[in-house]
Amino acid sequence: MKTYFECWIGVAKVLFSQALAGEPELDESDPAPLPESSFGFSVHLAGDVAGRFEVLLDAAILEAPLLGEGVDQKAGWGELLREAVDAAAGELLATTGRACRVERFEETAGGGEASRAFRLQSGDRSFAISVCDETREPQPSAGREAAGSTEEPAAKISPGIELLLDVELEVSLRFGCRELPLGEILDLGPGDVVQLDRHVADPVDLIVGDKIVARGEVVLVNGNFGLRVTEVAAPRKRLESIRCLF
Question: Given pLDDT bands bounded at 50, 70 and 90, which one contains residue 246?
């Protein structure tokens, strides 16, 4: 089964080729110690996959304006690597059904043993990158397994509903809403900003018909938007969402 590490590698290759100047390529290389001046970022994951994931880069990479002229290269690398770890979590959920979330993302000087080493090739220059993967899949304890045997069974689907399970429905994400007078709507033009009723850190809604069936966080999956589900409505509530569609 695909690991978080494998998801990150696939995502990083795509993001690096899109975000960095000179169409650089990320290729695996033989492990080698990085200079003491190297820098990096670590992420702490929780969920179905948990633990520490660290990326270290040769400080020489800061001398090359791969993220653009006049840009704080170190801060830019932090943003790019944060985007990569978020997208890898989305890719993991999409391909394996295992969910994880970023609990903490911070700058680090290293300390873990490198799991794999890579070279980022840009023109006639190359830069060393090492990855330390200390993530794991939490194993359920005996106590939890025993407790699980006493849990109520999942809600059953009413007889006959299974005939509809292959029906394709259109789903959409709702980031927020706002009521506006018709006059304001007619006056809207390019560049105008409409403020919604939801903070940027609030979860977004997954809508089927006019019903909310789930909520979650927006993630990137291979350059596309995705949803990491954090809340799900009960099966009966989800079934109510299709009443207006038939």
Answer: very low
Which CATH code for domain 4-136? 3.40.1550.10
Amino acid at 214: A
Q: Which amino acid, residue 7?
A: C
Residue 46's SS3 state is: strand
3-state secondary structure of 132: strand
Kindly provide the residue ranges of all beta strands, DSSP E only, lying in the chain, ordered along the sequence.
25-29, 39-47, 50-57, 100-108, 116-122, 125-136, 171-174, 204-208, 211-221, 224-232
Query: C-alpha angle with apex 185: 183 to 191, nearest 5 degrees?
Result: 125
User: What is the pTM for the complete model shown?
Assistant: 0.59
Tell me how long the chain is: 246
pLDDT in tens, 183-205: 999 999 999 999 888 877 788 88
Q: Using an 8 Å Cβ cutoff, are 112 and 132 in contact?
A: yes
Q: What would the CATH number be for the domain defined by 155-245? A: 2.30.330.10
Reading phi first (left if > 0) and then psi (alpha if -120 to 50, else beta), residue 125 is in beta
Beta bridge pairs of residue 131: 55, 116
How confident is the model over 132-151, as pLDDT tens digits? 999 987 665 544 444 444 44
Instruction: Parse the chain into domains and list their residue ranges.
Output: 4-136, 155-245
Of 105, 121, 13, 110, nearest in space to 61 by CA: 121
In 3D space, the residue among 20, 222, 7, 220 whose CA is nearest the CA of residue 120 turns out to be 20
What is the identity of the amino acid at 230? Answer: T
